[in-house]
């Protein structure tokens, strides 16, 4: 659709709203009653409707071609955006509440996020689709931003950060279905576009400093009409600087939270692993808990801090040692590990972890991943090097620059590189099944997949051996 066509479409939409206004009369609050619907004339609400029509419609269209659980999770995404629209309308008519009032106010949004999270439990079919969609919804938590001291990133940054954990799983969809089913690729691309550029540009245009509450409106004494019961979990914590999910992890540092960060810390639906992990008893294991819902209330926080598995090699750790080295050890089955308070002078050492995902929100000096299995690491970038050694089945996603990446004595390593890291060098030794994913030339282009050679031919020529990689047909 050309820019002219889009402009005409928006003008036609505006005319339709004005006709509705003329036919029904203007009501207080800037809205017009049209039966069960409310046509809101505020430019930010009109723009949000355009966002849903242009971007969310593409996700739904692709999901309808796929059907099943992918369509089910997409309908929840639609519901979450519908709830956000309702909240944006109510904010314009409501005085800014205190922290507890804001938690109550945002419960309908959390209700949708919780529902999406529950669909991911037990690694069902199309898990990557479900996880990508569920994790992406944390980007909608930008609406909870109340100021620089609230503990959340600025709204635009929050949306970008909120998408990044979802992108970890979204990339897997693009790789898995690249040459198998175009509908799945279409869905994954459309889901990303919904947030980047969709929601990000919307927030940038209308709410770069957060929602504007009414100075003269009514108090937020009750939740919106579709709010869950008071016993329902409150909104999840905001995502880490790049990853966030309905199981949104909190910052891993031990400094006390204040403002909204403290509120979300109490009611978040996911808990980061900290150095205070304790042994899990049988009655705490997920498979033995009848009340297991995937959402942790304040009273369940302590139990959730423990992994559902017990490491045989030593205690689980996620801690900063001597102010210079982050140590992440023996984490098993933890998908929301976060290091957020880091700097370019610190290093990160990941050892003995299995079936877990770690996000490093800031740029660090170097990262070492040692003796890990089925481990995912997402990093903002490294100053020196990222090293993978003695591992089996790991994925590393670099969102910034990485001058050097080395893979040693490893079987199965998937590297996702950003454009900033394409100029670096990759060194491999005694390793196999090493694949490197690189972004396409344009935003709509597919990722390119490159298998690094693991076999070499050595030919004696002119007094020395000449070594060349062995290529395989179909590779």
TrEMBL record:
<dbReference type="InterPro" id="IPR013992">
    <property type="entry name" value="Adenylate_cyclase-assoc_CAP_N"/>
</dbReference>
<feature type="compositionally biased region" description="Pro residues">
    <location>
        <begin position="230"/>
        <end position="241"/>
    </location>
</feature>
<dbReference type="InterPro" id="IPR036222">
    <property type="entry name" value="CAP_N_sf"/>
</dbReference>
<feature type="region of interest" description="Disordered">
    <location>
        <begin position="274"/>
        <end position="300"/>
    </location>
</feature>
<dbReference type="GO" id="GO:0019933">
    <property type="term" value="P:cAMP-mediated signaling"/>
</dbReference>
<dbReference type="InterPro" id="IPR016098">
    <property type="entry name" value="CAP/MinC_C"/>
</dbReference>
<dbReference type="InterPro" id="IPR001837">
    <property type="entry name" value="Adenylate_cyclase-assoc_CAP"/>
</dbReference>
<dbReference type="InterPro" id="IPR036223">
    <property type="entry name" value="CAP_C_sf"/>
</dbReference>
<protein>
    <recommendedName>
        <fullName>Adenylyl cyclase-associated protein</fullName>
    </recommendedName>
</protein>
<feature type="compositionally biased region" description="Basic and acidic residues">
    <location>
        <begin position="279"/>
        <end position="292"/>
    </location>
</feature>
<dbReference type="Pfam" id="PF01213">
    <property type="entry name" value="CAP_N-CM"/>
</dbReference>
<dbReference type="InterPro" id="IPR053950">
    <property type="entry name" value="CAP_N"/>
</dbReference>
<dbReference type="GO" id="GO:0003779">
    <property type="term" value="F:actin binding"/>
</dbReference>
<feature type="compositionally biased region" description="Low complexity">
    <location>
        <begin position="242"/>
        <end position="254"/>
    </location>
</feature>
<dbReference type="Pfam" id="PF08603">
    <property type="entry name" value="CAP_C"/>
</dbReference>
<dbReference type="InterPro" id="IPR018106">
    <property type="entry name" value="CAP_CS_N"/>
</dbReference>
<feature type="compositionally biased region" description="Low complexity">
    <location>
        <begin position="220"/>
        <end position="229"/>
    </location>
</feature>
<dbReference type="GO" id="GO:0008179">
    <property type="term" value="F:adenylate cyclase binding"/>
</dbReference>
<dbReference type="InterPro" id="IPR017901">
    <property type="entry name" value="C-CAP_CF_C-like"/>
</dbReference>
<dbReference type="Pfam" id="PF21938">
    <property type="entry name" value="CAP_N"/>
</dbReference>
<feature type="region of interest" description="Disordered">
    <location>
        <begin position="220"/>
        <end position="258"/>
    </location>
</feature>
<dbReference type="InterPro" id="IPR006599">
    <property type="entry name" value="CARP_motif"/>
</dbReference>
<dbReference type="GO" id="GO:0005737">
    <property type="term" value="C:cytoplasm"/>
</dbReference>
<dbReference type="InterPro" id="IPR013912">
    <property type="entry name" value="Adenylate_cyclase-assoc_CAP_C"/>
</dbReference>
<dbReference type="GO" id="GO:0007015">
    <property type="term" value="P:actin filament organization"/>
</dbReference>
<feature type="domain" description="C-CAP/cofactor C-like">
    <location>
        <begin position="315"/>
        <end position="452"/>
    </location>
</feature>
<comment type="similarity">
    <text>Belongs to the CAP family.</text>
</comment>
């Amino acid at each position: 659709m050309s820019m002219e066509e889009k402009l005409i479409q928006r003008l036609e939409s505006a005319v339709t709203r004005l006709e509705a206004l003329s036919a029904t009369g203007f009501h207080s609050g800037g809205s017009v009653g049209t039966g069960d619907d409310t046509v809101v004339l505020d430019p930010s609400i009109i723009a949000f409707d355009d966002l849903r029509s242009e971007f969310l419609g593409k996700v739904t269209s692709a999901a309808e071609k796929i059907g099943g659980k992918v369509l089910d999770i997409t309908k929840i995404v639609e519901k979450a955006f519908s709830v956000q629209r309702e909240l944006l309308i109510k904010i314009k008519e409501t005085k800014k509440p205190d922290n507890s009032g804001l938690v109550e106010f945002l419960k309908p949004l959390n209700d949708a996020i919780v529902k999406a999270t529950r669909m991911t439990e037990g690694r069902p079919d199309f898990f990557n689709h479900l996880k990508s969609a569920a994790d992406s919804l944390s980007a909608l938590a930008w609406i909870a931003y109340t100021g620089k001291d609230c503990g959340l990133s600025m709204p635009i940054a929050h949306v970008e950060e909120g998408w990044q954990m979802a992108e970890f799983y979204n990339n897997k969809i693009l790789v898995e279905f690249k040459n198998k089913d175009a509908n799945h690729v279409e869905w994954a691309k459309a889901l990303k576009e919904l947030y980047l550029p969709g929601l990000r540009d919307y927030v940038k245009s209308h709410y770069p400093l957060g929602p504007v509450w009414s100075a003269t409106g009514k108090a937020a004494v009750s939740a919106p009409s579709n709010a869950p019961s008071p016993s329902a979990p409150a909104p999840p914590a905001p995502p880490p600087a790049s990853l966030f999910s309905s199981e949104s992890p909190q910052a891993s540092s031990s400094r006390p939270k204040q403002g909204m960060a403290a509120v979300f810390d109490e009611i978040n639906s996911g808990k980061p692993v900290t150095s205070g992990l304790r042994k899990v008893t049988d009655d705490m294991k997920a498979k033995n808990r009848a009340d297991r819902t995937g959402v942790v209330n304040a009273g369940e926080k302590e139990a959730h801090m423990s992994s559902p598995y017990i490491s045989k090699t030593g205690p689980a750790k996620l801690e900063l040692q001597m102010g210079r080295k982050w140590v992440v050890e023996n984490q098993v089955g933890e998908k929301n590990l976060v290091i957020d308070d880091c700097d370019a002078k610190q290093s990160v050492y990941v050892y003995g972890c299995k079936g877990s995902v770690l996000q490093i929100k800031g740029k660090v000096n170097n990262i070492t991943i040692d003796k890990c299995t089925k481990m995912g690491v997402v990093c903002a970038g490294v100053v020196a090097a990222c090293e993978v050694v003695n591992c089996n089945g790991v994925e590393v996603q670099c969102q910034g620059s990485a001058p050097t990446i080395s893979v040693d004595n490893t079987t199965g390593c998937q590297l996702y590189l950003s454009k900033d890291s394409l100029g670096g060098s990759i060194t491999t030794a005694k390793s196999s099944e090493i694949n490197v994913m690189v972004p396409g030339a344009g935003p709509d282009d597919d990722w390119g997949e490159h298998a690094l050679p693991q076999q070499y031919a050595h030919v004696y020529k002119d007094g020395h051996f000449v070594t060349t990689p062995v290529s395989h047909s179909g590779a």
